[in-house]
Amino acid sequence: MSEIEKAQDRRFAANVVEGGRLGALLLDLWQRTRMDWGFVSDKLSNAFRRERWLGAQERRFVAETLYGMVRHLRRIDTGLAAARRGASPADRDRVVAYFLLTGAINADAAHRAARDVDWKRALAADEFISKERRPAMRIALRHSLPDWLAEMLVADHGDDAEAIAAGLNERAPMTVRVNRLVATRDEAQAELAAINIESRPGKWSADALILDTRVNLYGLAPFQRGAIEAQDEGSQLLAEIVDAHGVVVDLCAGAGGKTLAMAAAMKNRGRILATDVDPKKLEELRRRARRATVSNARAIELGRDGSWPDGLEELRGKADRVLVDAPCSGIGALRRNPEARWRLTARDIASFAALQRDIAVRAAALLAPGGRMVYATCTVLRAENQEVVEAIRAAVPELELVPAIEAWRPARPDAAELATPDGQYLAVRPDRHGTDGFFAAVLRRPKP
Fold first, then answer.
1. How many helices (H) and strands (E) does the chain have?
2. Which among 26, 129, 266, 271 counts the fewest CB atoms within 10 Å?
3. In the chain, which segments carry CATH 3.40.50.150?
């Protein structure tokens, strides 16, 4: 954030705590968000369509504040609990406390907004949290996670748990994938620079650009002509490790981000069958494919019960590559959807794991001899990752695990940096790689 934007935010924050119009909007948005912990992006879109008086900078400020409050809720409440001697915090106090903890206002300004709160004690929230001796609880409070999730992170990642939690609580960068069917990365970067949008190459994907300027991506000429697509660098790596060629099935394709990446890697040769149970997502995939000049991908709707249509059944035992980007908790994408942490429960994780196993076991039947299936998720939890892979292999024992460090084609000299310590799985995360948290296992059906 530039110094100009920081100064603007301080002015906006002062307006909020003084009871201005901006404050009323923020309070309303916060209360609507907490009602169901639905997507913050949807709440913002609805508000911005309704509140025509908001300028671009005010919209940015409102969005950053709302996302920030979701990301720091328990930290805010810890400070307020100390400041109010355990009394339940009011929503307006939460807004003021957020600005105080982020340095947008000082304790004197906070006191003018609410005189019954000891704002100096609220400002010491991090000091109170640091005194918590239980590692999982300290992580939960400091990085505003539900208890069950902090406990899972500690159980799964030990000493790395706090770094992962901190990374998941950061704001995600705006990352795009350059569509090589339309432009090279250098060409796309130059086109962005010509419209005053600075970008830099990603570290891990040869097609990634990280935009240093916050913009409406969908209004840009390079996007509209199909030269770039919004896609996290970790997601690009999942598409890459598939090594797509021949006949490819993207079984849980959604709106097609990985389908489009694989089509570009295949240079529109071969065939991709992209399936999903959601017809709206598949229609979006078709629109995106037309814009990206993709001609080798076909979208097919699955039955709501997961039943396979004829177009998929006919590929049983014939697919060279199958990508199972399974429905998951999305814990790895908390940077983008921070509200998800408050929607999910530990029980949901177990439900996802059972569904993931069932989908992948069934998908294995599509593989031709020598074919590979990539099981992938956007989560950092073992229950949805390694444990599901073990369950898949127990159900389909002929599948061989291809170590991630050997699966890249062509071989990557940095493959070990993208893998679990044993080299078996692709595993990237925000604190180490600057990506969302992604996992992938490569499973091969042996030739007779």
1. 23, 12
2. 271
3. 233-444
Let me know how long the chain is. Answer: 448
Superfamily of domain 174-230: Sun protein; domain 3 (3.30.70.1170)
Count Cβ atoms within 10 A of the Cβ of residue 6 and give its class: 0-12 exposed, 13-18 middle, 19 or more buried. Answer: exposed
pTM of the shown model: 0.94
> pLDDT per residue over 256-282, tens digit each?
999 999 999 999 999 999 999 999 999
CA–centroid distance for 353 within its chain: 18
pLDDT digits (tens, 9 = 90+) for 371-413: 999 999 999 999 999 999 999 999 999 999 999 999 998 889 9
Q: Where in the sequence of the chain do the CATH 3.30.70.1170 domains occur?
A: 174-230
The distance in angstroms from the start CA to the end CA of the chain is: 58
Three-class SS of residue 320?
strand
Quick one: tokens of 437?
């948290």
- In the numeric block, the tokens 């709206």 are attached to 280
CB distance 246 to 320 below 8 Å? yes
Instruction: Determine the pLDDT at residue 196.
Output: 92
Closest to 248 (Cα-Cα) out of 294, 284, 184: 294
Q: Where are the alpha helices (DSSP H) in 227-305?
A: 233-241, 257-265, 279-291
- The 3-state DSSP class for residue 36 equals helix
Type of residue numbered 322: V
- How far, in Å, CA of 351 to CA of 341, rounded? 16
Tokens of 370: 């020598």
What is the sign of the dihedral through the CA atoms of 215, 217, 219 and 224? positive
Q: Residue 299 region, left (φ>0) first, then alpha (ψ -120 to 50), else beta?
A: beta
Is-contact 17 109, C-beta < 8 A? yes
Q: Give me the long-range contacts of 195-199 (CB less than 8 A, separation at least 24).
A: 195/220, 195/221
User: Yes or no: is domain 233-444 CATH 3.30.200.20?
Assistant: no
The β-bridge relationship of strands 297-301 and 319-325 is unpaired
| CATH 1.10.940, domain 3-131, yes or no | yes
52: helix, strand or coil:
coil
* pLDDT tens digits along 174-227: 999 999 999 999 999 999 999 999 999 999 999 999 998 778 898 999 999 999
Residue 132: DSSP 8-state: -
**Cα 128 from Cα 132, distance rounded (Å):** 7
Q: For tokens 């970790």, name the residue.
A: 234
